[in-house]
Write a structure and sequence with these properties.
Low-confidence stretches: 1-24, 382-387
Number of helices: 5
Shape: elongated
Strand order of the largest sheet: 1-2-4-6-8-10-12-14-16-18-20-22-24
Mean pLDDT: 91
Number of strands: 25
Largest sheet: 13 strands, mixed
Order of helices and strands: HHEEEEEEEEEEEEEHEEHEEEEEEEEEEH
Radius of gyration: 29 Å
């Protein structure tokens, strides 16, 4: 009898403990109302029965455990606050409710690969603890609110593949931002001053214009990747871009650059450039050999510009260089024999070269007709490509 009483007391204590635990994790009411507003802003016909949002049934508490039938996924809680909001990629349509700002303990928001539309609510950028914001591959439109500068703890910001317009946001006060991707939008205007601790910068496939301003990049001592291809940038690609010690990859292809300044790095240990793509611009002049002074350069593309003159022999002797694309220019003379040892991939076609062996992959594209080459050189140089 004593054993039965002891067991009953223990069971009651365990029940009370569990009850206290559940009570302790009851979601803050303002978080619950925010979650209700977020779900209400989603078109219900785009919420499949198997999706995360379909399990958001507010007859139970979002942060209480265990989750058996409701709130199976889509959010993470710490104690009684929502700290992570993650939509599964099932094609939700609708808008993002401004009441998302009530989830003040959010650290991560990932709504990527859905069909959300409308403007990004400015209240989103008032979240004091937000570190990761991923709105990639939706249909958000309108300008990026200037309140984006209020995200004092943001580290990763991805709003690529949307329909955002207007000017680029000023992120210079975001001391924690390391990855910024605004690619594939409709953004215009010049490049503003950037967050000083950026590691990766991607703004490709917009309508960014103007020169590459040094003042926007001078404090970026950790920047490794610059991706600015498919824009409307003009002027000369300045030499300082390639001399920042942390830079590894630079893609400036498909812009309107007319010049290229290449300065030799000060020492072999002071440069980490691996890949450069400045193809499909309007760069004229002679091909400089200075690129070969970059100790780690492995891939170089200057395709479809207006470069003239011979190809410097230094390129064929560059041991780190594996991929070289010089096609679509007006380069003349005989290409260095070292290119045809089999270690290079790329293209030397559609130039004004002589004796580019058809047996080499580099020469698969035929050379330009003599008449075009003569015109490029003002009729003073007769360059007849060898068949």
């Amino acid at each position: 009898m004593k054993h039965i009483i002891t067991t009953a007391v223990a069971a009651t204590s365990l029940f009370l403990l569990l009850l206290q635990s559940v009570t302790a994790t009851t979601t803050l009411p303002s978080d619950v109302s925010a979650l209700k507003a977020i779900k209400s802003a989603i078109n219900p016909t785009t919420i499949p029965s198997y999706s995360c949002l379909a399990t958001w049934n507010f007859t139970s508490d979002p942060c209480s455990n265990p989750h058996i039938t409701h709130f199976l996924c889509g959010l993470t809680c710490t104690n009684n606050r929502v700290t992570q909001l993650t939509f599964d990629r099932v094609g939700y349509s609708g808008t993002l409710s401004p009441l998302v700002s009530q989830l003040t303990q959010l650290v991560t928001i990932d709504l990527s690969d859905n069909k959300l539309s409308g403007p990004i609510p400015s209240s989103l950028f008032s979240l004091p603890n937000l570190q990761t914001l991923n709105l990639r591959s939706n249909s958000f439109s309108g300008a990026i609110p200037p309140t984006i500068s209020n995200l004092k703890n943001i580290e990763t910001l991805d709003m690529s593949h949307n329909s955002l317009s207007g000017s680029l946001p000023d992120t210079s006060t975001s001391l924690t931002l390391t990855r910024l991707d605004l690619s594939f939008n409709k953004l215009t205007g010049p490049i503003p001053k950037l967050a000083p601790n950026l590691i990766e910068l991607a703004i490709k496939s917009n309508s960014i214009s103007g020169f590459l301003p040094k003042t926007s990049f001078t404090e970026l001592t950790q920047l490794e990747v610059i991706e600015l291809s498919n824009n409307s940038l003009t002027g000369t690609i300045p030499g300082w871009v390639f001399l920042q010690t942390s830079i590894q990859q630079i893609n400036l292809a498909n812009n309107k650059f007319t010049g290229l300044e290449i300065l030799k790095p000060a020492g072999s240990n002071n440069n980490n450039v691996i890949a450069v793509d400045a193809g499909y611009n309007k760069i004229s002049g002679h091909l400089t050999a200075n690129f070969t002074a970059f100790p780690s350069l492995s891939s170089l593309s200057l395709s479809y510009n207006k470069l003239q003159g011979p190809i410097p022999v230094e390129y064929s002797k560059k041991t780190s260089l594996k991929r070289l694309f010089l096609d679509g220019n007006y380069l003349n003379g005989v290409p260095p024999e070292g290119f045809f040892s089999g270690k290079f991939s790329g293209s030397l076609g559609d130039n004004c070269l002589k004796s580019c062996p058809a047996s080499s992959e580099l020469c698969l594209k035929s050379q330009k007709p003599t008449s075009i080459c003569r015109q490029a050189y003002g009729g003073k140089v007769c360059v007849k490509p060898k068949a």
